[in-house]
Amino acid sequence: MSAHLRTALALAVQGVPVLPLRAGKLPFGNCRACADNACGGRPNMRVPGPCVCPAPCHGWAAATTDPSVIDAPAWSRAWREAAAVAYHPGGAGLTVVDLDNTEATGWARANLPATRTVATTRGEHWIYRGAMQSANDVRPGVDIKSTMAYARWLGPGTGALAALPDVVRALVVKESRSVRPVSVTAPVGAGGGQCPHRTAAYLDRGIAMAEQRITEARSAVHATVYRTFLAVLSTHGRCGCLTDTHMQRLFTAAQAKGESARHCGDAWTNALTTLGL
């Protein structure tokens, strides 16, 4: 039995949902039956819950406390190849304030109540008792990991667990209500800023429809944002007709649905990469 598997089983006994991570702090990819979200896209479930697949698919949704699943043959390859153990904080009733550098750690010491802390490679995890919505980049160097997220297990840490304070909850409320600028730019194609096959009115209608699609999303917001970005870029990304103003309209719609600036930038970049732009 590998050391990671032993750690995972010990955490599961304590009621902490766990999953294996591969190199780069990434979850294992979906199994063949779930590739390309053919199963319906469980990563976008709006409530915590285990993946129903026999393999550790779907990132945080694979986290479980069931030892018969963790030690099942379908998970054995993942544990052999695992580089770390992760857990689902929200599933354990916890929230992790991920402080990514010394500046962020200094901010936490000055503004947050003391709680259990765990040293990381570049900063610290501050762990509170209580679950909340997760969000990235709520302030420089600070992420919130709780529901629908995973965090690396880096040891039990030191200090007593404190109750989740309102000041931490307010970070996510502030993030979801304010649109933050990003540095990603719209692609410039061979058309030199003029679309050779679409009129300006057609482009404006397309952007308006994309905004509406994001705004009306009731679930799977992450996936909807990415697919909308992909659709817009596949139509207009090679012509040079998209401007930063068009892109920011889409980002504004996404952030109004609770997406962070970082998530918007990642989705846009991933869509560009997928299309080879």
Can you offer a commentary on this structure?
By secondary structure, the chain is of the alpha+beta class. The protein folds into 3 domains: 3-86, no CATH class; 91-166, no CATH class; 200-275, no CATH class. 38% of the residues lie in helices and 14% in strands. It has 9 helices and 10 strands. The strands form 2 sheets. Strands 4, 5, 6, 7, 8 and 10 form a 6-stranded mixed β-sheet that branches. The protein has a 4-stranded antiparallel β-sheet with strand order 2-1-3-9. β1 and β2 form a beta hairpin. α6 runs parallel beside α8 and α7 (221-236) packs across α9.
Into which percentage range does the β-strand content fall? 5-15%
What's the quaternary structure here? single chain
Strand-pairing-aware structural class: alpha+beta
Tally of separate domains: 3
* Rounded mean pLDDT score: 82
SSE string, helices as H and strands as E? HEEHHEEHEEEEEEHHHHH
Distance between the termini: 45 Å
Number of helices: 9
The low-pLDDT segments are 42-49, 175-179
Largest sheet: 6 strands, mixed
* Helix content range: 25-40%
Number of extended strands? 10
**Radius of gyration, in angstroms, nearest whole number:** 21 Å
Shape: globular
Primary descriptors:
single chain; 277 residues; alpha+beta; 3 domains; 6-stranded mixed beta sheet; 9 helices
Mind sketching the topology for me?
Elements: H1 3-13, E1 18-22, E2 26-27, H2 67-70, H3 73-81, E3 84-87, E4 94-99, H4 102-111, E5 116-119, E6 124-129, E7 135-139, E8 142-145, E9 151-152, E10 162-163, H5 166-177, H6 200-215, H7 221-236, H8 244-256, H9 261-275
Parallel strand pairs: 6-10
Antiparallel strand pairs: 1-2, 1-3, 3-9, 4-6, 4-8, 5-6, 7-8
Helix pairs in contact: 6-7, 6-8, 7-9
